[in-house]
Each structure stands twice: as C-alpha cells, then as structure tokens.
Amino acid sequence: MGMRWSRSDSSLSLLPERKNNARSGEQNDSDNDSLDGMSRREDIAQFPYVEFTGRDSITCPTCQGTGRISYQVNELVALIPYSDQRLQPQRTKLYVVLSITLCLLASSLGAFFLFPRSVVVIDDGVHTVTVQFDTTNQRVLMNMTSTLNLSNPNFFSVWVDSVSCQVFYMKSVIGSQQQHNITTLLPLSDIQVNYTVSVEIGSSAPYVYAFCTMTSIKVHNIVVLMQTTVKTANMVHTTMNSLEAYRYIDCGSNTTDVQQHFTSTLSPVLSVSPPLL
C-alpha cells in the first residue's frame, strides 16, 4: 500500500512539471514561428521576382520580370464591361436636340443680320430751279436741284458710290450730271442727297426760248423726263437703283418750290410725248 501511494505521489508530482514543460515548449514554438516569419519576410524582400508559369497561364508582358508596371502606363488598354454605367448614354438625345436648336438659332440670326438688303431710294422731286436766258443764241439755261431720300435697312454700313441723272425733253437729252463718292449710309439710317443738273434748251427746240420769254404768260411750264441712277455698295455686292419721273418745270423765272403735278417712278420709260404748254 505504501508503494502505491508513492507512485501516486510521484505521478502527481510529475504532472505539474509536464504541464510547465508543455507551456514552455509552446511559448518557444511561437517565438520560433515569429522569428521564422520575420526572417521569411526579409528573405522574400531580398528574393527577386520570378514568374511561375504553368501550361494554362500567361506571362505578364508589361512587367518585364519586375512584378510591377513601371512605364507605358498611357499605352495600356482597360477592358470595361458592356453593362458598366460609364458606357450608358447620359441625356444624349437632349444634348443633340439642344445643339441642333442652337445651331439653327445662330444661323437664323446670322442670316437675319448679315443678309444684304437693297437700299431704298425715293425721289423727292425738284426743289430749286435757276433760269437764265441767252438772247444771242436763243437758249434757255437752267440749273435744277433735286433731292433723293435714301434709307438703309441693313445692319451694316452701305456706301453710296455715285448718283447720275439725265434730263430729256421731247426724247432729246438736254442735260446730265454724275457725282461720285457721295456719302456713307450708317446701319438703319436715312439721309438726303442733293444733286444739281445743268440743262440747256436751244438748238434742238428753238420755240422753247420764245415760249419761256413770253411776257403774256405768267407760268411757263414744260415737262421734262428725269432718269436717275443711284449706285450703292456693301460688303458683299453692288446694287443700282433706277428712278424715272416726269417733272413740270417753270422755265420763265427762278423757282424754289415747284408743284409736282404728277410723278412716276416706273421702269420702263413711259411712251408718252409731253405737250408743250
């Protein structure tokens, strides 16, 4: 019975030592593992990059054995799935319609403001007549001053290059006048242009002198045809406006306010032979 207890004592006495030895062994193993981990990391850091390619694997063409992409980044192509949100159109129709509308609006405004329009020319008639008589040659000399009203409907300036006028009496030219570099018409503006035509009636119609110098008549009216041409130019092209009108002229004395009985701006020329009053 005493030996049995001693064994028991010895076995009991040995158990704590085994437990302590086990605990110390486990601690030594963990320390060894941590040391082994640190040494492994250092070894891996010093170990060069090696590609292990199998039968179904593909070698990285851009790494060039370094394990990282060091250059040619801008030449790489990324594959994006078709269902990616970045590939979905975002208000494409709205942007297209808005762009077309803005283009049409801009073209319409440009055509409206830059489209050339003809200058409006209105003959305001003869305002001043100066009469002189050449008793030696029996001629009637007159200076007729007329006025033109010009209107520029464009949104840019227009140049009035010339104003020319011819005066006819009984289908014969009795006077002509031409002026160059008249003026500049500002955008959406109106101006008046005065021009004077020197008229001579003598050898072609000698009876006119007798009629104009007759003292028994107070008003000595004759009818003349005036053909006026206005040449204007803008940034694009040159235009010409032609006016024709019959005028009553008092050839007996100087006048400054001539009453216009009728005025015609029709083209072609009216085929009417004006009578001598």
Describe the secondary structure blueprint for this structure.
Elements: H1 2-46, H2 92-114, E1 120-134, E2 139-151, E3 158-169, E4 172-185, E5 190-201, H3 207-212, E6 221-233, E7 238-250
Antiparallel strand pairs: 1-2, 2-5, 3-4, 3-6, 6-7
Core attributes:
alpha+beta, Immunoglobulin-like, 2 domains, three-stranded antiparallel sheet, 33% strand, disordered C terminus, transmembrane
Class per helix and strand makeup: alpha+beta
Kindly estimate the percentage of residues that lie in beta strands according to DSSP: 25-35%
- Quaternary state reads single chain
CATH topology of the largest domain: Immunoglobulin-like
CATH superfamily of the largest domain, by name, is Immunoglobulins
User: Helix proportion of residues, in percent?
Assistant: 25-40%
| Element pattern in H and E | HHEEEEEHEE
Low-confidence stretches: 1-19, 258-277
- CATH level-1 class of the largest domain: Mainly Beta
- The biggest beta sheet, please? 4 strands, antiparallel
Average pLDDT, all residues? 76
The gyration radius over C-alpha positions equals 56 Å
Number of strands: 7
How many alpha or pi helices? Answer: 3
Distance from N terminus to C terminus (CA atoms, Å) equals 181 Å
> From the 3D coordinates, which CATH architecture of the largest domain would you assign?
Sandwich
Strand order of the largest sheet: 4-3-6-7
What would you call the shape?
A: rod-shaped
Number of domains: 2
Subcellular location: Endomembrane system
Transmembrane segments: 94-115
Protein name: Transmembrane protein 106C
Main location: membrane
